[in-house]
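Data availability excerpt. The first of two example chains:
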Amino acid sequence: MSATSLIHLTALTAFLFSFVPRVVRAAEPVSLQKLIDEAAAQGEVVVPRGLWKEPLVIDKPLKLRGESGEACFIEVTSDAPALRITSRKEVVVESLTIRWQRATSQKSGEPQTAIVLRDSPLTLRSVRLEALGNNARCPSGLLALGFSDVRIEQSTFVGFEFTIQFADGAKGRVTDSTVWMQRLWPSYGKSGRNFCKKNPANNPPNLLILILILSPRGLAG
């Protein structure tokens, strides 16, 4: 092979490699936000086993995947959401347990919800979303706004007053998922369509706690 051919082959290999999604893993405990910021678009960030306590922002298309849904915890006490998504292309969050509660009772411009997205496509797969406190500290689980399109699959929601909300034109589908609740009802208002529940922690022990399992056909909003 001539030197010219070798140069062309090397350049072609480098060009093709640039389109391969890259997986970012933490070799040692670091900031998850730093891993997300440094990840390439369309790449994957693997969350190591353990407890992570910082609010996260995803502003590019990528997959945020836990090594194990039972051993990877994002636990946030903050007036900001645990996870904010602003990417205009698809984000996938998979195999994680996310826990959230408000830090203070002060009113702020931040949505009072564990996960918020606006004008973003999102797939939530095999995620457990838990309220850390009572209804006052954990009013909402997931809030999709604007032109967001949400797919929730094989996930579990526990302890939020307003579990899943689609507002301002957002839409979504929930399939094969579980919501722990006292009772569930659709609430229609100016802001959108809410799938609501009461937090069993705030209710007398003699009230029946139910589990809602959504079939693979799903519940669309």
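And the second chain:
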Amino acid sequence: MRSPSSSSKAWAIGFVLLAVYVVETRNWRVLLWSMPLASLFYPVSPVLMGAIVNLLSSPVVVGFTNAAALIIGLSQLSKVIGVPFPRSDRYLADLWHVVEQIGATHWPTLAFAVGAYLLIWGLRRISGAIPGVLIAVVVATAISAAIGFERKVDVPLNDIEDQAFVDTARAAPS
């Protein structure tokens, strides 16, 4: 089997960096600017980025990729148990705050996450050619729509105790 080229490693590292930035800052507009720029640099990437990545040792690249995977994976913990994830400059403190909220787990959300994971795992055991993640997303979405899982509720602003939020909501254009 052929090992990945330096250019493909550079693109993978760049994509991981972009994904971490977008997930952590929730600045989706970055994608609108990065995709056209990426299309401009792609033809010259073997010359530019491949040479830069070749200067990094393999353990550094693997360590960086694993660290990004851990940050992305652990930031999903709050979504799996259905509790808010605070945003501050201290990631580990924010993560600890999520762990402290485990007692407030939203059980239906956890059931969806576990069910999707089990479906992906089961389909992978049957055959690696089956797109388990895609099937799990479609099934979870269909079940969610069928049972009305989202259940949005309109709340009058007078019922909200946080005055700063009420002021912000009233100032926002409708």
